[in-house]
């Protein structure tokens, strides 16, 4: 089948009673079969047609991952339209930009919180005619005439479907593979996000090519908790889900994701690096709190697993003695940890969007988790390059997947060409022409190089700098990723000044907090924790370890521990947690200037908002620190990757 609707109805006909998706409500998993899924899509499509949605229209969805999200998406596509997703954490200008640019007339919103956002923006959205909500709690008394309940639209559509049973089939037959299926926002790290149009053919080709290197079997379990507005979730949950018959599970709440993940024990998983890093942090905290015997048993099991992983990732067959010892190590040390993380049944999993530390890669492979790096962009359906089984090199993002051509231009830019390259940016032909050339090559804007056929990504091409001391090329992102390889660093932003490289760091509150408790350091808030001198000493040693892996001209000279975490609501990072460097450079200009000089501290002024709606200005003094000398590391024992202790 060449469209998402065709895939859905074909699967409903072939496997009507198989579970297509399930959501957890009030602690109970509520299943939806493929037949029920298809029926609800038909009914909602009829209902949307009654609201005036037809070929070429765009409907927006604003909310967390729920069956209604995908029912809306497929229903709109049945009518020849497209869906644009809005991140559920988006506010104000972010929502306004997407809805205005896409000329949206109907928004399907999750609940009262999202409806309230839209009501506040309604006067600025003259084309917005209807808001459909699917969680009615708190909305019964709202008087706005443009509010409609999701189930009411379905009920009207069900009556129309009975009266005109063949009408929708005719509309579905008119939808072609080259029609736009979804519209995804780009990352928006340097400017407002653009809206990339992706066709049915683009997405289905990606799903088929990925399966050529990593087969996906019908019924594989997949837990959908990353925003469906993101290309990464559309890539696996929707495109691979429909093409290969995944069973999707939607957690009840963000607070229950880990518990729900363990209950489902998925076969397939995709998460950005921060999820894998947080899992490793969880293991570190638990192992460090365990007794002497458990720590040493896990340490032995990990070493055995690491030796086994070294064979598997290089495509070598381990010997019989190692396989026997590994079975014991897996039973007593590795399998219980995989079970606690919800990775007991995992067949393969992916990470992308940012580099992942080689140490984190090695940890999961030693644990028995087949974790792979992928590389791509929204404009190529999220994936073009991936690690292949038996040939994993952790410093790379892998090799091109089948159907994808990869080359490096004369000026070092990564170029990609495949059937998954997007149709273009919505209402922006100039940007489209800049992104794709007449020969079909996508100009990614990323700098990289090939290492024996494997792609190594350096950074955005515009962000590759030359050091004034020796003219060497370097990337702030490369340095930042080295810093974030530490389990104690959540975010890092590096700057090149007159006197060298400096950095603003944000702590990982879980791992640093656990370390502080073990070392009996009292603290109250994140700001208090970041101001503790022993914490600065801890980070000074971590930065020294990062400096040891960097050329002398790229080493961190001075750093500061920021008093707060970077927040997408403050525009400091994107909704996919990519740093907005221009915002940081402006907002913390005084801090950056002090880092580049010789001042021992710098004062910052921040606004504190309280729950009662009041706010207060506070002055905070940030101490500026230096890393310890690299030579001092020689006498310190190396901390194992699975522990926060030396």
From TrEMBL:
Domain AMP-dependent synthetase/ligase residues, every copy: 9-426
GO molecular function, one term: long-chain fatty acid-CoA ligase activity
Annotated GO CC locations: membrane
Similarity annotation: Belongs to the ATP-dependent AMP-binding enzyme family.
Keyword annotations of the record: Fatty acid metabolism, Ligase, Lipid metabolism
Organism field: Virgisporangium aurantiacum
PANTHER family recorded: AMP-DEPENDENT SYNTHETASE_LIGASE DOMAIN-CONTAINING PROTEIN, LONG-CHAIN-FATTY-ACID--COA LIGASE
Superkingdom in the source lineage: Bacteria
Protein name, entry field: Acyl-CoA synthetase
Matching InterPro entries: AMP-dep_synth/lig_dom, ANL_N_sf
